[in-house]
Amino acid sequence: MNKLLCINNLEKKYYSKQCETLAIKNLTFDVYEGEFLSIIGPSGCGKTTLLNILTNMDQLTNGTVTYLKPLKFGYMLQSDSMLSWKTIWENVILGLEITKSKTKENLEYVDRLLNTYGLSEFKDKYPQELSGGMRQRVALIRTLALKPDILILDEPFSKLDYQSALKVSDDIYRIIKNEHKTAIMVTHDLSSAISLSDRVIVLTKRPCVVKNTYQIKREKNLSPTQNRKDKNFAKYYDLFWKDLK
Questions:
Q1: If we measure between CA atoms, which residue out of 204, 231, 177, 190 comes closest to residue 36?
Q2: Would strands 73-76 and 150-154 be described as parallel, antiparallel, or unpaired?
Q3: In the chain, which end has fewer C-beta atoms inside a 10 angstrom radius, N or C?
């Protein structure tokens, strides 16, 4: 696989009048085209800060982030952030309107996504008329509408109940793989990280560094729900749990 991003000795410090806080220390890893990469670590270790640096929403203090080609990021937040007074169609094309890229080609692409992933009949509905899982699917399609090279997923299942989270993880995985996107997911959910990812990076507590990196090996690459039944699933869970302890 081709490299898209190279992160080398990344360091992030926060300053106040009283002190200096080192949040990330000497963080080094690469991101490859087409992979689903998950990043896990203790609460407050700097995972979201890292995502913000990669997407240029925050600045690093030292080190480098090298983009091996021009990259467009799509950021999917914990909350679906739907606008309740707009229809599903109006919500999914909102990014196109903001970026002034509401071309015929892009609108046809959004329409295809809605049709392909079972949401076309809900285009004229409002967010409050949809389940939490369907709203997350809509949020992903809204993100994909801008045709990002890399999807950033920040705790995408944390607002959902267990059953909905399983269904949405299958949906999101299928959409990302079908659309040939690269994904970076930050999560506290070890099971989701194992079942969705091609590779998992485990960070230490703050100031975080890479503690371990795991290439996830399965007997078969199936849906995330089915991947939870893989014989290696429990092994990875135990390894991640030990790393985080």
A1: 177
A2: parallel
A3: C
- Give the integer Cα–Cα distance in Å for 179 and 236: 27
Q: Report the amino acid identity of residue 7.
A: I
Percent of the chain with pLDDT over 70: 100
Q: For residue range 230-239, list pLDDT tens digits in order.
A: 999 999 999 9
Strand pairing of 150-154 and 182-186?
A: parallel
CATH match for 1-71+149-159+181-245 among 3.40.50.300, 3.40.1190.20, 1.10.3720.10, 3.40.630.30: 3.40.50.300
Helix (H) or strand (E) holding 214: strand 210-215
- CA torsion 124→160→55→32, rounded to 10°? -100
Report the candidate in 162, 48, 171 with the shortest Cα–Cα distance to residue 118: 171
Rounded to the nearest 5°, which phi and psi values hold at 39? Answer: -120, 120
Q: Going by C-beta distance under 8 Å and a sequence separation of 6 or more, which residues neighbour residue 176?
A: 36, 151, 183
Token digits of residue 69 = 């080609």
Give every residue of the chain whose pLDDT is below 50, as ranges. none
Q: For residues 224 and 199, give the distance between their C-alpha atoms in angstroms, rounded to a whole number.
A: 14
Sketch the domain layout of the chain as residue ranges: 1-71+149-159+181-245, 78-148
Q: Are 227 and 195 in contact (CB under 8 A)?
A: yes
